Amino acid sequence: MRSILSLVLCTMVFSFSMASWAAAGPSQKSQPNIIFILADDAGIGDFSSYGCSYGITPNIDRLASEGIKFTQAYSGNAVCAPSRCVLMTGQHPGHVIRRANPSKNGLLPLPADQVTVAKLLKDVGYATGGFGKWGLGNPGTTGVPEKLGFDVFYGYYDQVHAHDYYTDYMVRNSTREPVPQSGKHTREEYSHTRIAAETLLFIEQNKDRPFFCYAAWTPPHDEYTIPSDDIYAKKPWPETVRSYAAMVALIDRDVGRVIQKLKDLGIDDNTLVIFASDNGANQQFIEPLGSTGGLRGYKRMLYEGGIRAPFIARWPGKIPSAQTSDLLTSFVDFLPTAAKISGAPLPEGIDGVSILPTMLGAEQTVRHESLYFEIYEPYFQQSVRWGDWKGYRIGLESPLELYNLKADPTELHDVAADQIEVLRKIEAIMAKEHVPSPNYDAPLIGKRVAVTVEQGKIQKAQSLTDALADRDAENKK
What we know:
By secondary structure, the protein is α/β, with parallel strands linked by helices.
């Protein structure tokens, strides 16, 4: 009897201490390390903890079994740069400067006075390092990472450059570093090999102080190439599909290397590790691999398949193991969560909320009423998640599509005609959260189009029917 009472008392004390910590935040001396690992273009269906059908990701699964898995989490947007912009700024897609990869005014760097999560953490004593793809400002602009809070950033600044896994140079703090290439496409010449090594080196070099490591790794983004895809060599898939699947497995392996490094350094218990992907998978991996997890849509679409993301957090001794949460959250919540964990002051104009209470198993008293998204490629789209409801449209005054995601998670049945009051609520949210941008034009009545982009500027927009006809004609040449 006494042992049972002792166990109950210990559980109550642990729960109370976690709730108090979540509310008050850490002291300066207890600042934990924060690692955010971001896969590039991986869908929710590519990870076995979310039901992957073609392979297993044991190290990412272990994050979930030793931490918390969010089942209703979203990326920042449905394509690379605007999604990362949300992650870095804590502002939703209707407020950030980047709302698509291109704009009518070319590539848009973050402004010099932009508050980022890296700057917040640096200002309260963190070492800050980024490794992989940046995409929010090329060398010579105001948006380079070393001007926005990063002590070091190594990898690709330009997102187009990031397509080249066998590049002859990488960038460190805006300076090109040559990468000798033999043309044999060896593992040593593969860019992710160097990026992963730099990630691990940064962790080791900063083991005795609090650090923020932004591991914005590039696989499994196009180009789909890897030194070896032996793990799926016997699969009857096209080479591109085998390479993509092997790139997902490579990310999983290196997640395992990060966790092992933390254990070897004795800092595992003082490190929060988050894993996510920047947007949904590409359309070509839906049929062979089920990469979007059966959800409608894909990359660049604001249906669920384009923005629903894996989101897993692990922090031994702080986050209870094997937890699952259906809290509505997105990348917009990372900055305020990091601020609460580190003790950094929260800047004004933030759209996110700290989800630290949910992570720690405490009561989440502040939560989103809704999540808002907009994107301008391949055409303008808006969407809102409000409770179980999901609204979607392609023009500011276009008719709204409406789905009940609890009853219809794959968005197959538009029930707009039967839910007038819900429509009005979601339309009001869209009107409130959309702030017009001088860099993008939002049509009143939208249409589905295909867009040609060259050098960061939109060159041609046409109907999908015409675009497909042009593509077929080009393929016949």
